[in-house]
Each structure stands twice: as C-alpha cells, then as structure tokens.
Design brief:
Helices cover 26% and strands 28% of the residues. The chain is an alpha/beta fold. The chain has a domain of 140 residues: Vaccinia Virus protein VP39 (Rossmann fold, 3-Layer(aba) Sandwich), CATH 3.40.50. Helix 1 runs antiparallel to helix 2. It starts with a helix and ends in a 15-residue tail after the last strand. Bound molecules: S-adenosyl-L-homocysteine (SAH). S-adenosyl-L-homocysteine binds next to strand 2, helix 4 and strand 4.
Length: 216
C-alpha cells in the first residue's frame, strides 16, 4: 500500500495548516512512514491526526503533537537529544532524521523491542534505546541539548533540569492525569531557567520514581 499521498495530505492539513513552519521537520514528516509504527489493523488510520493505541495501554502521539513538540525543541543538526517514552519509536525516528544522536528511554520492554525493530528497518541507527524508569533521565549520556518527555508528569523532575546543557531546551507535559500543559523550559545559565507554556494537551502518565506511581 502506498501511503505517500495520505501522508502529504496529513502534513498539509494537520501540521502546516496549524502553524508548524520548520521546513526540515515538515520534510521529515512527509517522508517518514508513520504507518510502520502502528499495528497492521490500524495502518489505514496512521495518517489521521489522532493518537492511536500501540498496546500495553500506551499510544503513539498525534502527528500535530509530535510536530509542535519537535519544533519547540529548536534543534540543530549537532544536538544530542534525550526522549523519555520511546513508545512506538515514531517521535524518536523524527528526531533521528534531524540530529546526530537520539537517546530514548522506555519503561516497557515489549514496546522498546518493537520500536527497535521498526527503527532498524528504516535505518535509524543513531537512536539509542534504554529500558528503565526514565524519570531520572539518562545520567551517563548527559548533558543534552534538548530533552522531550512524551508522557504527562505531575511536576518537572529535577534530573531533567540538571541534565540540560546551558542553552538547552526541555519540552514536557505537566499537570493532572486528565489534561496537562505542554511546557518549554530553557536553561539560560547554570541556575536560571526560563519557563513557557505552549498549549494544553493530553498524554498517558509518566510512571516512575519521580513521576506518577503505578497505581494512581
Ligand atoms: N514517543 C512515543 C509516545 C509514547 S506514549 C511515540 O512516538 O510513540 C508514552 C510512553 O512513555 C509509553 O510508551 C510509556 O510506556 C512511556 N513511559 C511512561 N513512563 C515512563 C518512564 N518513567 N520512563 C520511560 N518511559 C515511560
């Protein structure tokens, strides 16, 4: 099945028409086969602007959300990026086409395994995946130029702030379990952080030591 027409339409209607202007990102989303990141029965829905189930009660984020989060990171080619919540691997794949190194953490081994398979298939060898609780970041690989958290946190975990390079950007949904505010935090200097609200959003919970507890 050739999805390239559906994919271009999706990018035009749900990404460009809603104000995304980063040309390189738009190009990457026009080319990247999002349908490979969802199970076969859902592939025909891969180019609608919805989050879709990926098993284990998790979802692949809606395309517009991936676009606004990525654009908000203001990436440069040489950046090292940390993603929390590999999920399907789609966001990691978008990042991998824009920067040199992507580090992605997923707490559910099954999802990480599936994501690895798809990323290998489409040649995203610059994505490094670790299976663990990502609420402490990835200390061994820090600092990062950008950190993107693709699950909703009750508060901003301190480790993410500490693992940002000076000038680095963190994009994270923060708030209650029903809805969150997507925030961007820029590390202006060693001890000074600038906070901005981007938009309201709805993510699955960030579960772990510095996130929500498993049962909440
Ligand atoms: N970026 C993903 C979206 C996945 S949904 C994509 O493009 O498909 C969020 C993911 O965060 C889920 O897979 C969930 O298992 C994971 N997650 C939740 N809490 C986590 C934690 N503490 N550490 C790592 N991953 C976590």
């Amino acid at each position: 099945m050739d999805y390239s027409i559906a994919r271009r339409r999706m990018v035009a209607q749900h990404v460009v028409a809603r104000g995304i202007h980063d040309e390189e990102l738009i190009h990457v989303m026009e080319e990247l086969p999002r349908h490979l990141f969802v199970e076969e029965a859902l592939q025909s829905q891969a180019y609608t602007d919805y989050a879709l189930p990926i098993g284990e009660k998790q979802t692949i984020s809606q395309p517009y959300m991936v676009a606004i989060m990525t654009q908000s990171l203001e990436l440069k080619r040489s950046d090292r990026v940390l993603e929390i919540g590999t999920g399907s691997g789609y966001q990691a794949a978008v990042l991998s086409r824009l920067v040199t190194h992507v580090y992605s953490v997923e707490r559910i081994a099954n999802l990480a395994r599936r994501a690895r398979r798809v990323l290998d298939k489409i040649g995203c060898s610059n994505v490094h995946i670790q299976v663990c609780d990502g609420t402490s970041g990835w200390g061994e690989q820090a600092p990062f130029d950008a950190i993107v958290v693709t699950a909703g946190a009750p508060d901003i975990p301190q480790h993410y702030l500490q693992q940002l390079e000076i000038g680095g950007r963190l994009v994270i949904p923060v708030g209650g379990s029903g809805a969150q505010i997507l925030k961007r935090v820029t590390r202006v200097s060693e001890n000074h952080f600038d906070y901005e609200d981007i938009l309201e959003c709805r993510f699955v919970p960030l579960i772990g030591k510095h996130g929500w507890s498993q049962t909440s």
